[in-house]
Amino acid sequence: MNYFYCTTKINNYYKIGIADSETNIKARLTNYRSANPNTEILFFSEVKHGKSIEESFKRKFNYFRIGKSECYKLKSDIIYKHFLKYQHTNQYLHFFWEGYTFYLSDYYFTKELPYSGYNLSQRLGRVPHHSFTPIAKLDFVYNENKEEYKYEDGSYKIILRYLNLNKIKLNDYNKLYQKHLSDKYYGKTISYSDDQLNLFFKNNFKLNKIFKAEDIDHTKFKALEIIYNHLKNNKFILKKYPERKGIQDLRWWYERDEYKSIRRIKSLRLIRKIEYSFEELYNENKIIEGLRGLLNRNHDPKDWLKIFNRIISTSFKTPEELKPTFEKLESEIPRLIKYYKNKEKIDFELSNKKEKNENENNDNVLDFIENIKKVYKKKNKT
């Protein structure tokens, strides 16, 4: 089993890769951060054939590939949708196993594409993965003596318990899971929170399947197949893809749709349209630098109003990664304008007061001098 991962945007490209474990992904992320400190993992998943999905990106999106690297000037939603289609056509999901608990991506619950970075330091042990939700669990079957049940040939009796999607909607279950974490997991002792989480699984994973296997790990592929087929029956969860039957199985792997270049069409106009729609054109760091220049403190605050109007008139086109920055600017610029207007008013009043005080002081000095002159004249007369 391999892991496929995609980083958050680095300048104007995304880095994809294959690793054999989460630990390996974290090690690579450390290397990426040596050159780009703000890099995070956008999404990751277990995959069946890591090299195959990498090859599909190379062939399908070769035009957007940077040299011979695994970096692509593609929009993040294009990367994710291709990954998802590859997984589904190979009867896989966006998922991973945490021990013997099956975690499904929140995409299936919310239909929202991943836009924010993922913190791989979050572990189920204390802080559950924030973009995945558990829907199944593998466990040994125990006998009356509370020992692992074994068949005569020495193999184990394994049970898969999983969520019944015919009884509850994924979105409702996700809310129920989040409420459980809030009420009975966060801030609780380890023993209590783990016991309550296992009880939650027991109360919600009503369907089950029994396996006979030499080891519990050997049942993970079969368990995934059962979960996939269960999700496939719900068209609102899993998109229908053509099944490979008959003559399709005889095609070479590079003849399959997921490996064909998107530029194979003959229409030059359509090729240009695809390139424009798919390519990641902007560099987030340069945009931020440009905004810093526009909002230079040396500029007249009155000019910021023009900048503000330009921002709010184009913010609906803002890429998802930059929306928080633009939203902050939309609230911050009016506040700064108000602050500087008050500052100008205060400075003006202070200046007038200072000038008035100086004039009053000058008048007092002149009167004092005139009084001295008068006194001196009187003395001379006497």
Structure description:
- There is one protein chain.
- By secondary structure, the protein is of the alpha+beta class.
- It folds into three domains: 1-92 and 242-281, no CATH class; 129-236, no CATH class; 284-372.
- 47% of the residues lie in helices and 14% in strands.
- The strands form two sheets. It has a five-stranded antiparallel beta sheet, with helices on both faces.
- Helix 5 (170-184) packs antiparallel against helix 6.
- It is globular, with a radius of gyration of 33 Å.
- The termini are far apart.
Number of domains: 3
Relative strand content? 5-15%
Counted by DSSP, the helix tally is 11
Distance between the termini: 119 Å
Per the principal axes of the C-alpha atoms, what is the gross shape?
globular
The total beta strand count reads 9
Strand order of the largest sheet: 5-6-7-8-9
Write the H/E string, N to C.
Answer: EEHEHEHEEHEEHHEHHHHH
What kind of sheet is the major sheet?
5 strands, antiparallel
Q: Structural class of the secondary elements? A: alpha+beta
The overall pLDDT, averaged over residues, is 78
Please mark out the parts with pLDDT under 50 across 5 or more consecutive residues, or reply none. 122-126
Integer-rounded radius of gyration: 33 Å
Helix content: 40-55%
Task: Provide a compact summary of the structure.
With 382 residues, this protein is α+β, with helices and mostly antiparallel strands. 47% of the residues lie in helices and 14% in strands. The protein has 3 domains: 1-92 and 242-281, no CATH class; 129-236, no CATH class; 284-372.
